[in-house]
Amino acid sequence: MTPVARMVMLNLRTVAPYRCQCLAVFAVVVLLFVNRPVALVPTLVLLFTATMAAYPFNVGDKARLETLYATLPLARRSVLFGHYGWALACYLCTVIAGTALALLLARLQSVPLGGRTLAAVLTLSWGTFAVNVAVQFPLFTRYGYTRVSVLSTVLPLAFLAMLVVRLHLSLASARSWLPWTWPVGAAMIVASAAVAMTLDRRRVHPRL
Amino acid sequence: MSNLAFALRGVNAAVSGTFALREVSFELPSGYVMGLIGANGAGKTTAIRCLLGMRAIDGGEIELLGHPVPGPVALRQEVGVVLDHTYLVGDWRLAQVERALRPFYERWDGDRYRGLLDEFGLDLRAKVKDLSRGMAIKLTIAVALSHHARLLVFDEPTSGLDPVARDELVGIIGDFLLDAGHSVLFSTHITTDLDRVGDYLTLIHDGRIVRTGTKDDILDAYRIVRAGPDDLNDLVGVELIGVRRTSTVTQALVCTDEAGLLGADVLIEPPSLEEIAVHIGAPAGRRKETV
Q1: Domain range for residue A121?
Q2: How many domains does chain A contain in total?
Q3: Residues A132-148, mean pLDDT to the nearest whole number
Q4: What residues in A contact B88, CB-CB < 8 Å?
């Protein structure tokens, strides 16, 4: 197992005691959107994935896990990349489970969901995820979860709103901009990881 | 490869505008225990952070188990860190602690972990957050010993522990040292912990090393002097460390080679570790007085 994979596993172990709360968030979203399967996956990514991805930072602040990371035989780079890897794993699991559920619900309700619609839904979900992670993770890395939890919730939404307004993005013109979401999202996450690495060097952890 | 567990040589590290480690140098040969003694805020934790590569230094050099610091990440396989607080998820059960940490250590010994928990009276089903301070420290020691660390670094582990728990901890350190090549750095301001296990001592005050060496050398290097209120006023060439004056007596610590300059009416005694720590850690206003 690579160091980054070990860190992803550690994040899984970190959130494991809170799995019931996490699954409750998933269940509530599913219940709220049971009649709108098309919107299910993006909403799950916006609410459930975002919560799950940030949870190791949240628990880490309370349990001083930065000290644990510093004592483990693990390079700082692996710790940071492990957080991003954990977020991607959360995204993939959410999308797989959410898509399966959405398809099932759509079939039960005779709602058309397939082909282009599904591709557009997944692309939007990716964009939402990428903006969330790209904005939040450098902030968590530099300041810790507790200090920026509110700001880190508002900022990605503000950023998304700004993109829609500034770039005149609309559903009517989706065919032209939607395909760019995948590479732009990936580039944002890579850039975010680089920024997080730089900011991390400046962070002085308050206690051992 | 040197036979040192660690060495800090001329280390400088700025912590804040008002505090820094200055020219800090001390070293420990493998197989021994060093006590790092200083008052709160003296620089013990900062020195440990520098030693473990958790804080960048501005000058000097650090060697840890034969490698320069910062060194290879694998070096942390050899070091166990025990602090005055836990740094594990509070809702982990002790069995989950093992599952979380085992993948990181090449020589993790699950049988030893469970054996140590059993020996320390810790239940695998207990949650980290439900452990008392003493139990939590035992847990971190069990983790450190389960990956076969060669160097244990304790940062104020006994502060807040009751005497029984402190005694147990000293016993655990003694057992750890039965294996050749195992070393311990023990930072504390409770000097009685070191009476039993300390081989070497380093006294730190205000970010500077006051003295470092074997325990016997440190004890031999100082004398406690007591005299009447005015008896220590007219001496030349004697540095009084941490002078305490009352209406009936003046007490201070002096270097042994200066004690001979004091008059016959001054009571001169070997100090305890506690007395050395108290006088060296005295507030700046009464720390040093040359008469």
Answers
A1: 3-202
A2: 1
A3: 92
A4: 63, 65, 68
